[in-house]
Design brief:
Blueprint (H helix, E strand, L loop, with lengths): L4 H22 L19 H33 L11 H14 L9 H21 L5 H24 L4 H12 L7 H19 L2 H7 L3 H6 L4 H23 L5 H13 L7 H21 L8 H24 L1
């Protein structure tokens, strides 16, 4: 991509996120009409905007950026277009940590306990991932370690569901696993946002290393790239960004898969150049999905994780058919 086209792409994506953010503040079961914005504070619906819609919109942007950036970084590192944060077990370990707080009944003690459990689960997952993959392992070993971690964490969540002491605990775990931005507070935004921002900034530092890795591991080492350091940054950055996201919203899939694929034809072959655009596109995807989840006429509000699965499943299937066609 030329330097003239890249600013235009970023400007277009940012404009889209701004428009979707405004729509997110307005849309819902209780609509906020356009004229209310010219009379701030004079309408009781401003309480809905400040207490519910603003935290929800900020979290949607932050979570989308985290998932989009992590997906682009992991696809660039593994040179695998199907890579996604969930593949490496970080999302599953974050879920397992949060589910354990619900299983043990600790989630009701304070609003920060469940997010803290999710981030602790993600941190433990990163530590185990690095331990399993080893200091000098290859990309394949790193992927296999992630698959093992993902399987173990998923089994832990299933066990917690099976042994849950009360139907209420089962219901809470299932509702949380579906993923949602509904009823999130400013406190949860303050808890998750620093970790998400820190994780994304770490991922953005890997641009040159990911570009060098397109030459293969031997070629990257010849250019002075430390693959062990790159893997450490990716693991910690993904753990912070995705772990904090899952900790406050539950499981939201396919964003890290869709955002890079939608933009790769516009950005080009350099994986490093895809990180920031994918982060912004991820924010747009999550905001659009959350708005759609609110507007679909259902007895109760549709969970965002369900809406993203309904969108991401056909996208994933179409992508596989396209890859099969190219390989034939």
């Amino acid at each position: 991509m030329t330097t003239m086209r890249r600013p235009a792409l970023l400007a277009g994506l940012i404009t889209l996120v701004v428009l979707l953010s405004f729509a997110s503040l307005c849309a819902g079961k209780a609509w906020v009409p356009f004229d209310i914005w010219f009379n701030p504070g004079s309408d009781p619906r401003w309480a809905i905007i400040f207490q519910l819609r603003i935290p929800r919109t900020i979290l949607g942007i932050a979570v989308g950026m985290a998932l989009g950036a992590a997906g682009a970084a992991l696809q660039g590192y593994t040179r695998n277009p199907l890579a996604d944060p969930a593949v490496f077990g970080v999302s599953s370990m974050a879920s397992f940590g949060a589910v354990m707080t619900l299983y043990l009944g600790l989630g009701a003690a304070a609003p920060w306990v469940l997010p803290l459990g999710g981030m602790l689960g993600a941190g433990i997952g990163v530590a185990i991932l690095l331990g399993l993959s080893g200091a000098t392992s290859s990309v394949l070993t790193f992927i296999l370690a992630g698959v093992i971690l993902n399987s173990v964490a998923s089994a832990g969540v299933a066990l917690a569901l099976n042994l849950a002491p009360t139907p209420w605990a089962v219901n809470e775990i299932i509702n949380w696993l579906m993923g949602s931005l509904a009823d999130r507070s400013a406190g949860e935004v303050q808890l998750a946002l620093p970790f998400i921002v820190g994780g994304c900034l770490l991922l953005f530092t890997t641009t040159k290393a990911l570009d060098a890795l397109t030459l293969g591991e031997t070629g990257a080492r010849s250019l002075g790239i430390s693959l062990g350091r790159l893997r450490l940054i990716l693991a910690i950055g993904t753990g912070l960004a995705v772990g904090a996201s899952v900790a406050v919203t539950g499981m939201i899939g396919f964003v890290g898969l869709m955002a890079p694929h939608l933009l790769r034809p516009l950005v080009g072959a350099k994986p490093g150049a895809l990180l920031i655009p994918s982060a912004i596109a991820g924010a747009a995807i999550v905001l659009a999905g959350d708005i759609a989840a609110r507007l679909i006429p259902t007895p109760v509000e549709l969970k965002l994780g369900v809406a993203m699965a309904a969108l991401g499943g056909p996208f994933f299937f179409a992508m596989l058919l396209n890859m099969r066609r190219k390989m034939a």
